[in-house]
């Protein structure tokens, strides 16, 4: 999922996270979030994935937005 730059409320400004309904995702094994930051919605999404992706094998949080020079198709 790609999202262009937007202004988001930081988790440091408001640490109350929303609780989303549980829905187990049994086939989600690898997740990479590029441009990970302290935006509240990004942290909430990450928590949701950790809680509900029961088959999760790898979660990569990349704080770099966009591709890297050495990125080889990942």
UniProtKB/TrEMBL annotation:
Coiled coil: which residue ranges? none
Which InterPro entries does this chain map to?
A: At1g61320/At1g61330-like, LRR_At1g61320_AtMIF1
Q: Where is the At1g61320/AtMIF1 LRR domain?
A: 1-69
Taxonomic superkingdom: Eukaryota
Under the heading Pfam families, the entry gives: LRR_At1g61320_AtMIF1
- PANTHER family, per database record: OS02G0105600 PROTEIN, OS04G0479800 PROTEIN
- What is the name listed in the Swiss-Prot or TrEMBL entry for this protein? At1g61320/AtMIF1 LRR domain-containing protein
């Amino acid at each position: 999922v790609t999202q262009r730059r937007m202004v988001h409320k930081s988790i440091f400004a408001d640490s109350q996270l929303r609780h989303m309904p549980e829905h187990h995702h049994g086939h989600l094994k690898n997740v990479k979030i590029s441009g990970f930051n302290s935006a509240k919605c990004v942290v909430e999404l990450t928590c949701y994935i950790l809680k509900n992706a029961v088959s999760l094998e790898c979660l990569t949080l990349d704080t770099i937005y966009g591709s890297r020079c050495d990125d080889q198709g990942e």
